[in-house]
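Thread: "does anyone have the structure for this chain?"

Original post by V.I.:
We have the sequence but no experimental structure in hand. Need at least a predicted one for the grant figures.
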Amino acid sequence: MERMTYEQFAEMWDGNSDSIECTTSGSTGTPKSIFLPKHEMRRSARRTIDFFGVSRDSLLYSCISPDYIGGKMQFVRCREAGCRFAYEKPSNTPLAGYSGGRIDLVSVVPSQMLYIAGLRNLPDVGAYLVGGGPVHDKLRKIIAARGIRAYETYGMTETASHIAIRRISDPEETFRILPGISISTSGDGCLKIDIEGWQSIVTNDIVRMDTPETFTIRGRADNVIISGGLKVHPEEVEAKIRSLTGMECMVSSESDEKWGERVVLTLEPDGKTGMEPGEIINKTVKLLRGHVAPHEFPKIIHIGTLPRTANGKLQRQL
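Reply from O.Q.:
Generated one for you, tokens below.
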């Protein structure tokens, strides 16, 4: 499938239609097309502009394709602020060799941020917007150690980009909503988002409300595993396993006659371990003991490549 170019998106944005057709990520199912009102995309852009103090003198930069909401919105922010805009072809080596001067705000996905954070000479960037997937502990530690100003975003295509943001370097900082947004939880603990003057959305994300304006994500309701009558939130278990093993992983489940569902773990080694699959599994089991609750402990462990969507998110439903 041929990617959209920023020139093509500019034509769409400047066209007569009052809305923009966008495609959801498909991380938990089939991607679908939706139409976002341009005036709501402008309001979303203004929230980010105000948060980062973007002005007419700023330079915004995108490492993301305009096929995705993160790429589209970086362009819209530029238009709304009346500032300069630059971009590059999306790759796993963003800003490599960049020499165009200071950038005020860069839009990236986590894998791109990991590459940038590992560069010997960091580019002159005011702040990074990191979206499109969760920021893992390994990346957070690198960002903190190198003093990079980077922010993880929470939002979705349906909300015209992020509605909340948190500083990555601080492990204790939770997501804080932006102006014009209010939040609550549904009866089953899922996050409810109210966008002033537009719409209310009940998400599938189970959260803990820390304050009326901040929240912590526990996992998705449609990913919850019930094993022996107890709930297992795959995202929480994955975070523990990544921290302990340093490997990418995915927690899923299989039907079990005794427990209802049994936890299944798939590990994706980086190829540098020098160990055979059996050795990796045995080492993982030892590492997890005492750190993962009995009902969360994987009954089966596989070694393999994790399924991902086009923009790098784990694809839990195939």
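V.I.: this helps a lot. The chain has a mean pLDDT of 91.
O.Q.: and Residues 42 and 80 are 7 Å apart (CA to CA).
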